[in-house]
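P.,

For your records, the input lines for the assembly:
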Amino acid sequence: MAEVDSGPVEPQARHIVYCGVCTLPPEYCEFGGTAKKCEEWLKEEEPELWNRLYSEDSLNANLSALSVSAQERAAKDAKKKEAKAAQNEARDAERKAASKVIIKRVERNKRKHVTVITGLEIFGLENKKLAKELGKKFATGSSMTRSAAGTEEITVQGDVSEDVKEWLGEVYGSKVPQANIELVEDKKKKSSTAAPAV
Amino acid sequence: MFKKDIPSSNRSKVKSSVQRGLRQKLLETYPGFEPYIEEILPKKASLEAVKLPDRVTLYTIDSTPLFFQPFDGPPIPHLRLVHAFPSALPTIQIDRGAIRFVLSGAALMAPGLTSPGGRLPDAENALEAGQVVAIKAEGKEEVCLVGALKVGTEEMKSKGKGIVMDEGHYLGDGLWKMQLD
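Structure tokens returned:
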């Protein structure tokens, strides 16, 4: 950095803590539908702020600002929202558990292969970015393509299926459980009687 | 405006001449940002434009969103920017009862502002229709909504009902949740 005569400019931006669960500023967590989780998170990460926001006094102050009927309505609404959020989450988890990442080795020539990976987007990974990363990692061509069915898949040149599995476990192990990764081999149709890919 | 989640889309570098123009425009619209402009939008930084639905463009530096600009309107700062520099925009306040509606994307209505929990500026500092304002909530420190007023503040006081802001950028909407890396 070049030195300026007027001296370094103090950064004036306020630094704000955002909730790690619902991304809102913590004071708005109660409206996010995941209030309980947010509170726990805040207690762990920012005890000071938690003290200020969730102390008896501030809770009471919040309540007294509304009429009784409005309070009831708000509480009901919050409950509904919370239930919905919980339901969504459960459904999401279920879907994740049921779905599989399929790493398919497709024969291109007698001794050349490409690796096709599908099903990553369900686990919250972005195909396009991941394709680039894979290409870098294995020093090979790698791109996101759309299959005939319209689903997204990553095509990596070369047979890297085993390596991809290992790499996924290493880098994205927290997102994609190893048990949900499946290796499949797909021979050229004419040379084998394996089930044709539809 | 951004009720739905926004899929990540293409971004492109902004020409430096356009960037200068934008900077000028931003300062013209929001004199309050003047003292901080070097920090928000340094001259050397490379600004990027991200296309959002409905002909809105979002401007970012690296992965920090700065402000968005509807096709024909003035630039409106992103809430994160408003949080960082709360004094830059004129602020009005809504009562506690209105927060949950605002945060679920409803249009802002006048009673939320005129009731005892709300706060509007005095007659001499009245805000005109079309002015971009930040909206705070009763008992909260941070701003929860930013957008252009549809009705002047004096008219709100005299009428006391009706829609005040049709579409704004609120906490937890698609733009707020957008992934920018």
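Two observations worth noting. Chain A is about 40% helix and 15% strand. The first strand of chain A starts at residue 101 and ends at 107.

Regards
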